[in-house]
Amino acid sequence: MTTRFYRACLIFCLMILSQSTVMGQPLKAMGYLAWWMPQSWQNLPLQEMDRLFFFELKVDSSGAIAERHGWPEQWVELQQATQRQKTPLDLTLTLFDAETFNQLFSSDQAPNKLLAECLELAANPYVNGLHLDFEIYGGASSKAITNYRLFLTQLSQQLHGLSPARGLSVFLPVQTESALYDAPSLSLMDWVVSQSYDSHYRSSKHAGPVAPLTGSDELTWEKAAADAFALGVPRNRLILTFPLYGYEWMVLDNKPRSPTQKMGVTTTFSEVDKELLPDVQISITQRVKQFGATQDPSSGSSYYQFQNQQGQHVQGWFEDWWSLSRKIDFVKAEKLGGITFFVLGYDKEQLLGYYLYQKKPKSLDDLIDRQ
């Protein structure tokens, strides 16, 4: 009788305390599946993922898909697995330089060619949508931007008019002088994935957090979300990006955010096969096991530091379970759509698994089991 009474009281309390979690919209779990990690999807809990972005198909100035990285012929097993698990699979189209962007969207014919290419890609029954990752940080002409927004309108109408409808989403760069998107163009999107990483990068003059949650850095999760809100992005359609990599620099001394002495290197949370990433062979987890780590409350990120055999100071910043937990709390508090991870496989599903477990209890019994 006592056990039943205790359980009943616990259920009642949990229903009150976690009503918004149980009854509200669960956070989305998305991730970028990179072509250079061809087997990583096989270890993913696909049934728990809300969306995969296949990365990447490169767009050229003529509007053609210049590089498909084996899509679709070399990815048949992935397509079948996502369909079997009912996991939406979107194709990521990329364009990273202003000259190509201006040539493409200042042309009379190239946008039409790109539109035709997009519709051909979307016609694949295994494809659920398209994701545009056009990262232009400066130098885009006003004409090209205007035409790009017209292109988005046409593409959205065409994709949403298919049967079944296909989704359309964009990656939203921050700290850019060329604003590709405005409120009307973003209102067309099913999802807006904000750039909430690379606050510091390989060539930064000081070591520092890659994806700070808070603080005085120009790019933080708080500021990225605020920028998206200012453009009218609905909270439940905004997805923030969590990096599964970090950066390591040789620095001046052992002070946090010490001046860097040379170009930094990219690190991955877990060890990655040398054949897949021959130029990225520093594992964050191995560094932390050897040198320990410090949590930085001001940014919500973590770092390690040590002196190498030559006596040079080394400092590496990264995101881990502690920082992810803080970010999950932020996303829940702000009622955002969820988190997407870049690049899937870099953590061997450790951080991804933590997010999938924490983002929403599966049932009331699961809530009770955690007490």
From TrEMBL:
Positions of the GH18 domain: 27-371
Catalytic reactions of this protein: Random endo-hydrolysis of N-acetyl-beta-D-glucosaminide (1->4)-beta-linkages in chitin and chitodextrins
Record flagged with keyword Signal: yes
Enzyme Commission number(s) of this protein: 3.2.1.14
N-terminal signal peptide: 1-24
The protein's enzyme class: hydrolase
Keywords annotated in UniProt: Carbohydrate metabolism, Chitin degradation, Polysaccharide degradation, Signal
Name of the protein: chitinase
Originating organism: Rhodoferax lithotrophicus
Organism ancestry: Bacteria, Pseudomonadati, Pseudomonadota, Betaproteobacteria, Burkholderiales
